[in-house]
Amino acid sequence: MYKTMDKPNRAAGILCPVASLPNRFGVGDFGENARRFVDAVAEAGYRIWQILPLNPLGYGHSPYQPFSSYAIEELYVDLDELASRGLISRAPDFHKDDARIAYEEIRLFKFPYLKAAFHRETAKGYEVLEGFMREHPFVRDYGYFMANKRRHNMESWQYWSEEEKKMGIVHPEVKGEYAEAYYFEVWLQMTLYRQYQSLHAYANQKGISIVGDIPFYVGYDSCDVYSNPGLFLLDPDTLQPTSVAGVPPDYFSATGQRWGNPIYDWKKLEKTGFAFLDERLSRNAELYDIIRLDHFRAFDTYWKIPASCPTAVEGEWVLAPGYAFFDQLLAKYPGIDIIAEDLGDLRPEVLVLRDHYGFPGMNVVEFTFPAYLNRSGEWADRENMVAYIGTHDNETAKGFLDGLDPAERARWEGALDRLSYRGSLTRKLLGFLMGLKAKWAIVSLGDLLERDNSCRINVPGVIDDKNWTYREKDMEEVRKAVLDSRELLEKGGRLG
């Protein structure tokens, strides 16, 4: 396990996707500006950088529908580092000043440089990749998966030939024309892992721990399902899901949320000692210092929707073997650090499961502040928590506050004024966040910059050209906002 340092109590952190950092290629990567961001975070007194899943972006550019639970998104390759090693010439600026991430255009721009660097580094053969392949066995399946996917213009694996579908299971010999496409994927992952591990080590040297997010489910069009179809509830003949994941109707949605991810076959997982999930978490614990388990409630009960149902209205709650899984995981990896994403309408047993293992839960102030105002029993500010104004799924703080009706906004501001918080209403709310009992308080970069909802990261259940495209353009503006927030940490007793 890649463990680094003790995680302090009363620490503060910043939530910022790697992709959202300023960069001269229109999308953040593992290069210079990521290090400049780490420098500012450390100088301001923060101890945590929370990122979103680094995995290859899937449907709708969502990091929560990735093509693999282990691979890293190719857009995060730092081209300048490849140029410094003499593998490519220096690339010109591209979409540097765009307000949004133009994923596909940037991917097309970067791809020839990546191919050129691959050819130069492997000019004497593919032996240079062998060490990485031994240490990261996932890349063997992933090489087959992505080589075929590119050959089919990124079409889902369900439409491939029977021979191609079997590659991730039977592992045929790699030779001929196919070899170059396969080893290019291996080289990409070797490069991404090397660059990320260098950035991770740099952050740790500065006293910064990285929190990484792990989705509970995997996407259907993923290497995970392609290589392990027997571990999911799929029709044995068509390999189509018989049941899919989601959440039932609630006050957010009358029809619920039908995510469409395939459901685990928990009986088969148990027979293997949960090997698939064990590997997912342990491998990600090598990438991150702290793991946030998304949709934690599904380790207790999960919503099982018939694949034929177009919404999440039909379904049933099914009991999951959460205790059996965590007992064996923590016995094997006792040092693993986990945050439980315990948001939403939960049955009490979910919180009992969380507390049984001492996992910190989450306090999202946009949701809980009304209970604080009303002094209701729902308000629970306690130490073993991670507090946020909002997550990547929430409105920005400014957007949320601007949307309150005048009377409610006045109530919020009056309560914050009585606590002696000053500045804009957003700034006052950030001060409130830092003053909570929670052992970690994490603020979104967009909230430090007081961005409105045009900079919201994601609106759940929506596929459009806005979700996941938030980016900042000016690194100096980012650096100044981070450094200017130091006084919030100091007043909240959270200076690292």
Task: Walk me through the structure.
- The chain is α/β, with parallel strands linked by helices.
- 40% of the residues lie in helices and 11% in strands.
- The longest helix is centred in the middle third of the chain and has 29 residues, at 177-205.
- It is globular and about 75 Å long.
Content-based structural category: alpha/beta
Rg for CA atoms: 23 Å
Number of strands: 12
Low-confidence regions? 1-5
Alpha carbon gap, first and last residue: 24 Å
Order of the strands making up the biggest sheet:
9-6-3-2-1-12-11-10
- Quaternary structure state of the chains depicted: single chain
General form: globular
Give a quick set of tags describing it.
496 residues, alpha/beta, eight-stranded parallel β-sheet, 19 helices, 11% strand
Question: How are the SSEs placed, and which strands pair?
Answer:
Blueprint lengths: L10 E5 L16 H13 L3 E3 L28 H6 L18 H19 L8 H6 L2 H14 L10 H9 L6 H29 L3 E6 L8 H5 L15 E5 L9 E6 L3 H6 L3 H13 L2 E4 L7 E6 L9 E4 L2 H11 L5 E3 L7 H9 L4 E4 H10 L10 E4 L8 H6 L3 H13 L6 H10 L5 E5 H4 L26 H10 L1 H6 L5
Parallel strand pairs: 1-2, 1-12, 2-3, 3-6, 6-9, 10-11, 11-12
Antiparallel strand pairs: 4-5, 4-7, 7-8
Helix pairs in contact: 1-18, 5-6, 5-7
